[in-house]
Amino acid sequence: MGLRTPVALTRDDGGMAEISDVTDEQRYVLTVDGRRVGRLDYVLEGDMFVAKHVVVETAYEGQGLGTALVRHVLDEVRETGLALRPECPFVVYFLREHPEYADLLEDIDDVDEVS
Asked: pLDDT tens digits for 81-90?
């Protein structure tokens, strides 16, 4: 897909978080103050974006960074016109909590059918 420019997010504590697509690694990388602290691994299968795995370091959990990462990636999936196959439980959870992204799911009537 290829993110054109990194997206910067200002955190409540004043720290700077950035999300960028590292296409040769097939992952979106989340950095905080220049340090990699999370990622969303993916595979592209034709016009299907397969969200494989989301990881956020334990020290950064509970700060909304995983949610910001998934939201950003799904917004990019929508912009590029790809369909989504979520294989990661966190992405499935996000979709259940944010039904406004259900249109990305190709040939799936209900997020509950995704495992």
From this structure: 999 999 999 9
pTM of this prediction? 0.83
Q: Tell me which amino acid residue 21 is.
A: D
A 10 A CB-CB count for 70 gives 23
Q: Which of 9, 1, 58 is nearest to 25 (CA)?
A: 1
pLDDT at 34 over 60: yes
* Extended beta strands in the chain, E state: 7-10, 16-22, 27-32, 35-45, 48-56, 83-86
Q: Residue 35 maps to which CATH number? A: 3.40.630.30
Q: Which domain holds residue 61?
A: 7-101
